[in-house]
Amino acid sequence: xxxxxxxxxQKLAFEIELRLADGIAVGPDTLHFLSSTFSxxxxxxxxxxxDDPEDADARSLxxxxxxxxxxxxAQLETVIEKHRCSAEDRDRIVAALNRKNLAVPIKFPGQEDxxxxxxxxxxxxxxxxxxxxxxxLPTPLIDAIEREVAPREGARIKAILRHAPLELTDPxxxxxxxxxxxxDRSAESILADLELCxxxxxxxxxxxxxxxxxxxKKRRLLQQLQLAxxxxxxxxxxxxxxxxxxxxxxxxxxxxxxxRSIARIDDICLTVFEMTDPQLQIPTDVDLGKxxxxxxxxxxxxxxx
Length: 305
Description:
The chain is mainly α.
């Protein structure tokens, strides 16, 4: 028998309570922020700052700590998907957890000591709303992921899609279904492709054909590589101070990452659309000194073609 909404809310509230009981693990980025901004290195030092709940920094830090990260979302994804909840269910979950007066341990990596934080309703809303439990992923997308990807990695993929900064329209859903079904990549490679695809969809205006979005991104990356190659030639002929006086702008681009992104865009497009644009090629300004023997000639020819 299908669970009613109250039962769904109760069961998901129980799973969330278990997750919070395990504690909040401070990730490396948050740890660096605490250290560099507040000189906080231990749970005790964090407790001193959080001792005043009216302090603006304390409130901001608590919101940061209780915004669920990717690990939280992936761990809870299976139960979120199973116990589909409405906005009313979400409010029931917050209310139910708030009545329990929970204290959640904050854990720093490599340290045994923890800091117990009493959960307020505001923090519960931050955590529960951050799980985006009211969104229902399209069934064809769920089915494709479950057929093609192992459960653990599949939960990560579904959690990322649940929190994608865009609407999963039918064309975008069909795109991801085909990417998962037709890909012979590992789950880690699919996750990397997913991150790139979501960034491309989010940063560019909507167009009629998704293929055009990828080619537009590829074109921009190629233009940036060309600017970087041109700058390197200018720098070889002049020094940095002279170029700055001439008003030459320094291109800010990770050239290796740009080349990897271009290769991945081609791979994604060949997988999903079965085509790419052969006229858009990586610039030929390549240091051939990188290729030192005959075994590397094939690589050089491939880059230069």
